Amino acid sequence: MTTDSADADTLLPSAGIPSAVANVMPDHSRGLSEVAAAARLRAEGPNELPRDRPPRLLATIAEVLREPMLLLLVAAGAIYLVLGDREEALLLLPAVLVIVGITIVQERRTARALASLRDLSSPRALVIREGERRRIPGREVVRGDILALAEGDRVPADGVLLDATNLEVDESLLTGESAPVSKCASPLRASARPGGDDQPFIWAGTLVVRGHGVAEVCATGPRTEMGRLGASLASLEPGRTPLQLEVTSLVKAFAAIGLGLCAALVLLHVAIRGAWLQGLLAGVALAMAMLPEEFPVILTVFMALGAWRISKSRVLTRRLPALEALGAATVLCADKTGTLTENRMRITALWAPGVRQAVDAAPLPEALREVVEIGALASQRDPFDPMELALHRLAREVLGATEPQSTRRDLVREYPLSSELLVVSNVWSAPDGRPLLVAAKGAPEAMARICRLDEGAAQDLARNASELTTAGLRVLAVGRAGAAPAAQLPARADSFSFRLLGLVGLEDPVRPGVPDAIAECRSAGIRVVLITGDAPGTARAIARQIGLCADPVITGVELQALDDAALRECARGAAVFARILPQQKLRLVQALRASGDVVAMTGDGVNDAPALKAAHIGVAMGGRGTDVAREAAALVVTDDDFTSIVAAVRLGRRIYENLRRAMAYALAVHVPVAGLSLLPLLLGWPIALFPVHIVFVEMMIDPACSIAFEAEPAEPEVMQRPPRRIDARLFDVRLVVLSLLQGASVLAAAAVAFRLGLAHTHADDSGRALAFAALIGGNVSLILVNRSWRRGALETLRMRNAATWLVVAGATLLAALAFAVPFLRRAFRFGPASVGDLAMAAAAGIASLAWFEALKRISPSWLARR
Questions:
Q1: Does residue 732 have an active-site annotation?
Q2: What does each C-alpha distance from 821 to 613, 767, 824, 838 come to in angstroms?
Q3: Please, are residues 60 and 101 in contact by the beta-carbon 8 Å criterion?
Q4: Which residues pair with 439 in a beta bridge?
Q5: Beta-strand (E) ranges in 638-725?
Q6: CATH number reported for the structural domain that contains residue 324 in this entry
Q7: 156 touches 138 (CB < 8 A)
Q8: Burial class (CB in 10 A: 0-12, 13-18, 19+), 197
Q9: Which CATH number characterizes residue 747's domain?
Q10: DSSP assignment of 483-552, as one string?
């Protein structure tokens, strides 16, 4: 195979891979069968600690009955009983049951959505079952499973190591010691405790910070060391989000104003009319009308269901503030490999000094075959990295049938990639005392340095590497060195005398849909920044394929030389960063944030965690990402696809828009209800609304806010608008003013209908019926006009939303029954009113918002601006 075949490793013809690589999997490599694993899961239970059970139905009902709105209803019922009006008191009881039912349905729906998210976002484990590696939820790991552990993994269960290479584990969760401890495989199975170096035991909840290994699970769930200590895996309760703080302050303000007005109304009623029970009843009605209890409910439901909807696009939400920030993102920093590309590498070109050839052409000459073999030996023995998988795959294809089985080598030491040296090296030995073989692969410029090439050879290497990267290939250089078997291995890989063997050109196709997603980001005012560890030529070629501006390309070396001010200026204009180390991502994020951008950053490695935390929206890769990255991120993309991130941004904008519409509606609808409770007393009119009327309206408001508006589809141009400001308030001045004007318009229509009804029929009950018809018509109009602040109500009819029509149809039907059924008519205190008069009153309520529809036509951009 090579001129120095004694130094080359051998291959197993049956496996088609280097023997030392094949030896990584011992006899336990098949692991458990799926049948055996399922049986143990049933017998021993899931691999999770006991956690709080969801609240029982009775507990939920008891919690709901403590809500202020329900307490006010009970107070109103008690006053009716004191007044001797049993019929009115009994009518409020079903209303209480309906509101309790609606609230329970909302809470259960929210709980189911959150439970689904917890199941989806539970830690994942890589196990070997039936000879295949499978990624499963951590809760499905069972005793006897074979775990494959790599740097950045969270250990899912207690176990004993069967194989370990440079494995170090952070056990501070159990021991309090911050320094990681080294691990080694051992046949000893004696019991031990966490802590101490060179132990074969691993413990659930600890973190692999270096190396890799294979372990057999010995204990799961409450039987683990963590379970015995009673530690909880639940996350700390997150702080309140800006939206929650804003809504809470608004509710407090409304409550304070409402209580003041209620007290004033009771005193005024007693002073004017002398009936303190009637005054107290009017005060309760006003309190029910003023209390904006829907606001926190809307926020909770929208955030929970929004996170659930985003999970359907293969993006899990770990922190709710990320949903708020999605619509404000101005920069999206994306990795190339696996995010913009398919992460399915294949070798398409090989180069050795004096020879270059496409892989799918004629049989490879000996020089190129050596490049492939040493490249495979410089890779992990059982790789996950797509480039290393491609090297092993090609080694099986071109070398497997030609090598003898004379001797085999064992892995002695690994020299991992570092910021100082972008090269990975493996040292191999053989049992017959042959010289050690050092196989290396890495960046061409780094390989040129450790091979100590003269100027001519270095230029030749650089020229050929540049030609490959210009063609869009990722390029690795391969080299080899030898050492005496008994020699003391140096601390650094560049101390060996390496000989350059050649270059490997790998292709990673761009994912389908990425160019369209980039264009969509551009139209949405979001700048996409490509960050990769590849060479500048490769990064430039990929950028051109996906539609990014390929110039300038900033390298990690250039970035390192910039001070913070220069980096801010550079980051503001560049779209492609190449040869970037993970730790340099943090500086990029900080520079972009300092420039005023709202940054979304993708990452997958342990070293990406600081950048993910520093970004406004940290996005971890769920497929190839480490547990550390997932824990640091706010979002997790389960399929590692860039288009899923863009879909999440689109959904985030939809959620925020729908939240604003729901809040605008809820604010507006309280105005006519509160006004009809207060104005009659101030103007000397009869009471227009009793608690039963307000309960009816509340039963319409709740599903409209939390079901109809939440299900509203995104407007077609949602991704054609610039991002909103990160500090934009949900209740800005324009939303509050327009909502109050909407409510005042409906109030005016209902008040006019009430007054005209009184004048026309000279009966309080008949005027009340017309006022209520106008209020219901205005409520329906509020729902329809607030479906969109850009499109007219007639245009929104083409936007499918069955929930809206269910709410509207249900409210209309119930109102019609209240007018038509004698028992209900008496309970609602409605007097005789013709169908024509009721229809005119309802039409007046609907038409009261015609001015807002006209404003949409006159100035749609002003209404939509934030």
A1: no
A2: 61, 18, 5, 15
A3: no
A4: 426, 480
A5: none
A6: 3.40.50.1000
A7: yes
A8: exposed
A9: 1.20.1110.10
A10: E-TTPPPPSSGGGS--EEEEEEEEE-PBPTTHHHHHHHHHHTT-EEEEE-SS-HHHHHHHHHHHT----S
More confident: 804 or 54: 804
What is the arithmetic mean of pLDDT over 3-12?
A: 31
Q: Which one is catalytic: 145, 153, 335, 597?
A: 335
For the entire predicted model, the pTM comes to 0.70
Q: Is 52 part of any domain?
A: no
Say yes or no: 706 and 827 in one domain: yes
pLDDT at 244: 67
Q: Of 156-165, 221-230, 457-466, which gets the smallest average pLDDT?
A: 221-230
Burial class (CB in 10 A: 0-12, 13-18, 19+), 522: middle
Q: Where are the beta strands (DSSP E) in 264-374?
A: 315-317, 331-335, 346-352, 355-358
The total domain count for the chain is 4
Q: Is the pLDDT score of 276 beyond 90?
A: no
pLDDT at 769: 92
364-368, 374-378, 640-644, 805-809: which range is least confident on average?
A: 640-644
Identify whether residues 218 and 263 lie together within a single domain.
no
Range of the domain at 824: 241-308+658-864
Domain boundary residue, one of 454, 480, 507 = 507
Same domain, 168 and 264: no
Q: Is residue 499 part of a domain?
A: yes
Is 91 within a domain? no
Helix (H) and strand (E) counts for the chain?
32, 24
Residues 468 and 603 placed together within one structural domain of the fold? no
Element (H, E) at 208: strand 207-219
Nearest to 388 by CA among 447, 439, 437: 439
Q: Is residue 20 part of a domain?
A: no
The bridge status of strand 635-637 relative to strand 617-621 is: parallel
> Sorting pLDDT into bands at 50, 70 and 90, what band is 499?
very high
What is the rounded distance in angstroms from the CA atom of residue 646 to the CA atom of residue 664?
27
